[in-house]
Every structure is written in structure tokens, then in C-alpha cells.
Write a structure and sequence with these properties.
The protein has 16 helices and seven strands. By secondary structure, the protein is α/β, with parallel strands linked by helices. β2, α3 and β3 form a beta-alpha-beta unit.
Length: about 400
């Protein structure tokens, strides 16, 4: 009882409510609400257009704050409705819990404990996905979602599909979300992380009902397509906007700049070999003729290959304007080797034009790919040797 009283008091102290979105879960909803009410009466239920006995069931709990959608709009929309209502009522945090009986109110204290340490974080209740009764599709879906979340944010999380979460309402109120159904729970994590909100986890218990008793509103084809489209968009936005934005912000902030250099360039945990490989890949992508996509592909490769992103970005900028004439000239020279007697003479000049390139495009493409490979390997080896020499001098000085 003392623990329950402590949790109740902290709900008031932290201005936190419990948010329960529900759609046609009348069979389990009453037990979930009763379980939560043991710990707090600050409970908001969003009835998302249920067509079962949900409405009459909710009348049995007169202390609840109930919002009703006249028609089903999707879990994401129900959560967003609850967020707006809670924020308007003066709550600063909302803990969402599913209405299917999968989660337990006894774990509410875990979120509050973590909240006291990290007041600007989305805290996810991480389920034990290794236990015997976890459905295979849930285990696969979680791994799939967690992989893409890492690609989109750079953050590793043990469970990105859990609906048991604590949300900070102020930062979320400043984001205009685009999705309204199950995919919202992915979007909110990624978009919040891009806005500077931490993503953290706490362990929670989970109950999976026997297969014949489970109620799921997930539509395998439609919802998977929605999630796949969302992930594609989020990856592109991160590659083309978020990473360059963060890089540019870091250039103008001394603390952020030093942190960026330490984490992404000097990175103490990266080996000299990995750093040299990062330079090689960056140089290769900066020269290879993939106009307009060089930087985006370089960033993507750095994520997939787990390279030093800072070095890849810096090296990829080898094709800055003053270097372009030289790169084009060397590309033509190397391309002549592959063209044989069909090779076209090319005069190095700062007045090299687009017409000069298109007139001899095949020679240029062959040569630029060759130059990209040769320059990437050469500069990768040179950077590796320089790092070894620098470290040796540091050891001798010490």
C-alpha cells in the first residue's frame, strides 16, 4: 500500500496522467482501467469509435476523463487527441497503456523513476521478447521496427513497438505529425528524436493471451504498407535534411562543434583502419559520377557499413568547386585508357563546361569511376599512414 501511495503522489507531483486509447476492447478494458485506478485517478480514455460495449462500460467509471471519436480514426489519432486534451488540462506527461490487457499498472512506477532522471525523454516500456509465449509475428515486427528506428535516428532501442510509454507533452505539442494509425508510434519516436527528445527504455512485464483470445486490429497488408512507406520517407529525410542540418548547426556552436569532432571524427573507439576506410569511401563517393546523390549515398553507406560518418562527409567534399576542373581533367585522362583509339583529347582549363563533358560522356564516366577507386584507395592509405605517424609521435612525446 505504501508503494501505491508513493506512486499516486508522484503522479500529482510530476503532473502526469495515464492515457488509454481503445477500440473494440470491451472484453479487457474494464480490467485495465481498474488496474490503473489503484495507482492514480488521473486517467484519460480515448474511445476511438468503438462499436462494441465500450461506451456503456466506461459509464461504470464516473471519475474517468473520456473523449469519444464518433468514428474510428486509428490509434495514432487517438493518442494525439489524448495528448492535446491532457496538455490543455495542464498535464506535462502522459503514460499510454494499451487496452488489450497486455501491460500491467504495477510497472507505472518504473516510468516515474526514470522520469525523475530524464525529464525530457520518451520512455518506452521494453517487453521481454524472448519469453516463450511471444507471437512470432510480434518478435519479427519488433526487430524490423527497431532496425529502421536505428537507421532513422542512430539510437538503439530494445523495443520500439511497445504501446506502454511515457510521453513529454510540451515538445510533442510543437510537432505536426503526419500519420494517424499504427505507424504513428514509429513517427513519434523518430520525429521527437530529431527534435532533441531523448529515447529511453525501462523493462516492463507483458502478458500475451492465448492465440484464440487475442484481439488485434493490425491489418497485416495495409498497415505494413503504411509503415514501409513511412520508413522510406523518414530515411530519406534523415539523409537529405536531418544529418546535414545537425552538421551545419554544429559548425556554429562551439560546444556542439567540439562534441561533433570528438564523437564523429576523432572517435576514440574507431580503429585507424576504420577511419582510413571512411576516408576512402568518402573520396570515392565525392568523385564517382552520381551527380546530386553523392552526399546522400555517402551518408547511407556510412550508416550501413558503420563507418566514421564525420570523416565520410568531409572526404566526400573533395569535389568542391576549386577541385572540379582538376577532377574532370584527370577523369578524362584515365578514361582515355579504357577508350583506346577512340579516346578524345582533352585540354585542362578552368573554363571546362558542361558541353565538354557531355560531348565525351562515356570517356568521362569510365575515367571518373577509375579515378574514384584510385583516389579513394590512395587517400585512404595516406590517411592511415599519417594516423600511425601521428600516434607514434604522441607516444614518443609522452
Amino acid at each position: 500500500m505504501n508503494q501505491i501511495n508513493s506512486v499516486t503522489e508522484r503522479f500529482i507531483e510530476f503532473k502526469t496522467c495515464v492515457l488509454i486509447p481503445t477500440y473494440n476492447n470491451a472484453g479487457t478494458l474494464a480490467a485495465v482501467i481498474s488496474d490503473v485506478l489503484q495507482y492514480t485517478d488521473q486517467v484519460i480514455v480515448v474511445n476511438d469509435g468503438s462499436t462494441d460495449d465500450t461506451a456503456s462500460l466506461l459509464q461504470k467509471f464516473p471519475g474517468l476523463q473520456v473523449i469519444t471519436h464518433p468514428v474510428n480514426k486509428g490509434k495514432g489519432c487517438a493518442l494525439q487527441t489524448g495528448f492535446r486534451y491532457a496538455f490543455e488540462k495542464g498535464y506535462q506527461y502522459a503514460i499510454s497503456i494499451d487496452s488489450d490487457g497486455q501491460h500491467f499498472a504495477k510497472d507505472l512506477y518504473r516510468f516515474l523513476d526514470k522520469l525523475s532522471e530524464a525529464p525530457n525523454a520518451i520512455i518506452i516500456g521494453a517487453r521481454n521478447m524472448q519469453q516463450e509465449n511471444v507471437p512470432a509475428k510480434s518478435s519479427f515486427g519488433n526487430k524490423f521496427s527497431s532496425f529502421w528506428c536505428k537507421v532513422e535516428t542512430g539510437i538503439t532501442l530494445p523495443d520500439t513497438q511497445s504501446g506502454y510509454r511515457l510521453y513529454p507533452l510540451l515538445p510533442l505539442s510543437k510537432i505536426h505529425f503526419l500519420t494517424h494509425r499504427f505507424e504513428f508510434e514509429i513517427e513519434v519516436l523518430v520525429r521527437a528524436a530529431w527534435s532533441g527528445v531523448e529515447l529511453l527504455s525501462v523493462p516492463v512485464s507483458v502478458f500475451y493471451a492465448p492465440k484464440e483470445e487475442r484481439v488485434s486490429h493490425f491489418r497485416p497488408f495495409k498497415d505494413f504498407v503504411r509503415i514501409s512507406i513511412l520508413n522510406t520517407v523518414l530515411v530519406l529525410v534523415r539523409l537529405l535534411y536531418i544529418i546535414p542540418r545537425n552538421f551545419l548547426r554544429g559548425l556554429f556552436d562551439k560546444k556542439a562543434r567540439q562534441q561533433f569532432i570528438n564523437q564523429h571524427i576523432l572517435h576514440p573507439h574507431h580503429s585507424d583502419e576504420l577511419k582510413a576506410a571512411s576516408v576512402a569511401v568518402g573520396v570515392f563517393m565525392g568523385i564517382v559520377p552520381l551527380w546530386g546523390f553523392q552526399l546522400a549515398i555517402a551518408i547511407f553507406l556510412s550508416l550501413v557499413l558503420r563507418l566514421n560518418k564525420g570523416l565520410v562527409l568531409i572526404a566526400a567534399n573533395i569535389s568542391i568547386p576549386p577541385m572540379i576542373p582538376l577532377i574532370i581533367y584527370l577523369s578524362y585522362k584515365m578514361g582515355a585508357f579504357w577508350m583506346g583509339h577512340n579516346a578524345m583529347p582533352f585540354v585542362f582549363s578552368k573554363h571546362i563546361s558542361l558541353h565538354d563533358i557531355t560531348a565525351n560522356l562515356q570517356q568521362y564516366i569510365y575515367g571518373s569511376i577509375t579515378l574514384a577507386v584510385v583516389a579513394g584507395i590512395a587517400l585512404g592509405l595516406i590517411s592511415y599512414l599519417l594516423m600511425k605517424v601521428f600516434k607514434r609521435k604522441m607516444l614518443m612525446a609522452a
